[in-house]
Amino acid sequence: MAAQEIGQLAVSSVTMAEQAGAVLKQMVPTINKTSELVQEISAASGEQSQGVGQITGAMNHLNAATQQNASASEELSATAEELSGQAAALQELMAFFQFSDASQGRTGHAIRPASRAGAATRGNPAEAMTAEGPRGAGRRAYAQQGSGQGARSSGASIDEAGFSRF
């Protein structure tokens, strides 16, 4: 009887082992597929990490460029302010000179072109001012209208009544 029970137990153990083997055979492909999926997820996570690193680098680059642009804007603003002040000062200095414009009925001290060499030899920088500016293309020197010579060379005095003081 004991031998018969041991035989039955052995047969049931073999049957259970065969069933376990069959279940394991079914599980192995699923386990392999799960392992492959985990590897793919790991690779995708690595790629995402690299992408995030690249985005962070690009954001840092944009931040640096934005800061440089802000700095350049501040410098341009300061330069524009300085130029505005210089332009106002230049306008104030230019207000000293009055030109006659017969077509608009304006009056003032009439001036006429003089020779370039004549203005340079007299050494008067005010007479060497040009209509186009000191670096203008025309570079025409002006002398006070009178006997054909500048006020200095003719000995005539300059009427300062029309000039404003600053």
Task: Characterize the structure shown.
- By secondary structure, this protein is mainly alpha-helical.
- The chain has three helices and two strands, in the order αβαβα.
- The chain has helices spanning 2-94, 116-122, 151-154, and strands at residues 111-114, 141-144.
- The longest helix is centred in the N-terminal third of the chain and has 93 residues, at 2-94.
- The chain starts with a helix and ends in a 12-residue tail after the last helix.
Please provide a brief summary of the model.
The chain has helices at residues 2-94, 116-122, 151-154, and strands spanning 111-114, 141-144. It is mainly α and 166 residues long.
Taken as a percent bin, the fraction of beta residues is under 5%
Helix content: 55-70%
Spatial strand arrangement across the major sheet: 1-2
Q: What class, by secondary structure content? A: mainly alpha
Largest sheet: 2 strands, antiparallel
Order of helices and strands: HEHEH
Beta strands, count = 2
What form results from the Cα inertia axes?
Answer: rod-shaped
Mean pLDDT: 74
> Which radius of gyration do the C-alpha atoms yield?
49 Å
The low-confidence parts are 107-154
The end-to-end distance, rounded to whole angstroms, is 137 Å
How many individual helices? 3
